[in-house]
Design a protein that fits this description.
- The chain has ten helices and nine strands.
- The chain has 297 residues and is α/β, with parallel strands linked by helices.
- The chain folds into two domains: 108 residues, no CATH class; 116 residues, no CATH class.
- α3 crosses α4, α4 packs parallel to α6 and α9 packs parallel to α10.
């Protein structure tokens, strides 16, 4: 304490009623505290959104320039932080994240949550083709991403995004009773709901394995069947029916080409035409290509 006093770092004030304070220099602060008030011209955010979407489809959007300053103040540009917005609205938060990434050459990511709140049928948004606020949000992000790329042609920017909707599992629930046992057994010969796609199954699989839904996904067509490849070959997924030995050989050869440290292969239940093909497929993957982690969905 005496050293600080001798260095004249303590300011005592004119009398005993003044609380002493510690003198700090600008270079000693890692970051400048953010302002408590950000001034922006009135309606500027609305005008920019109207211009971006070529119509007046959303009233009183958040200001992306204000959010950029908040993002820069509250996140570390070196940590690839995640920004979450539970009330996405027109998508201003995601727009601000993309702009901040382009400005600072960072890789922050975002998650937006928005109920499919319907637009009023007499509104300009509905007349322009937007049935829900979520649709406005998605279109804004598409246009904003293209605009940011055009304005920063020499940067490698990730302005893509994926859209997920909350739904029940793709797999039929198994809850038979004595009266319905025979009917349920027949229905579960194929345990996947009929109105679900391979993409639906793939992302449920990622959730079950605790994998990031934003993982890069490559798609290969092997002997007419679609094979998803994630993590450089760490996970290969084939969810088509009637998988042949040619597809199995293709998966094995792809594994040898990619040479992942670990590999798991996942098939759809009952994806093989018969048990003979299934047995041969499993033996081929295990014995010829050393793939032992084989699961079914």
């Amino acid at each position: 304490m005496q050293e600080i006093i001798d260095d004249k770092r303590i300011i005592f004030g004119k009398d005993e009623t003044t609380t002493p304070s510690l003198k700090l220099y600008l270079h000693e602060n890692e970051k400048e505290p953010p302002y408590t008030v950000f001034y922006q011209p009135i309606k500027s955010a609305t005008q920019r959104l109207d211009k971006l979407l070529s119509s007046k489809v959303f009233q009183h959007p958040k200001d992306e320039n204000v959010l950029i300053r908040l993002i820069e103040a509250c996140t570390d540009p070196n940590n690839n932080d995640m920004i979450l917005d539970f009330f996405a609205g027109s998508g201003t938060t995601a727009h601000a994240v993309m702009l901040a990434n382009a400005k600072q050459q960072t890789q922050r990511r975002f998650i937006l949550v928005q109920l499919p709140e319907p637009c009023a049928e007499k509104s300009e948004a509905y007349q322009a083709g937007y049935k829900t606020i979520a649709e406005i949000c998605k279109e804004r992000l598409r246009r904003a991403g293209r605009k940011i790329q055009e304005e920063n042609p020499h940067q490698s920017l990730d302005v893509g995004f994926r859209v997920f909707k909350l739904d029940s599992s793709n797999i039929k629930p198994w809850d038979p009773t004595f009266e319905t046992l025979e009917e349920d057994l027949i229905a579960h010969v194929d345990n996947i709901k009929h109105d679900r796609s391979s993409d639906d199954l793939l992302f449920e699989l990622l959730l079950k394995y605790g994998l990031d839904l934003s993982l890069p996904i490559e798609t290969h067509v092997l002997a007419g069947k679609k094979v998803y490849v994630l993590g450089g070959g760490a996970l290969m997924v084939c969810l088509d029916k009637d998988v042949s030995m040619q597809t199995i050989e293709g998966i094995g050869q792809l594994k040898e080409t990619l040479s992942p440290d670990i590999i798991r292969v996942v098939f759809r239940d009952h994806c093989f035409e018969n048990d003979v093909i299934k047995t041969n497929a499993l033996l081929t993957l295990k014995q010829r290509y050393a793939i032992t982690d084989i699961k079914s969905l």
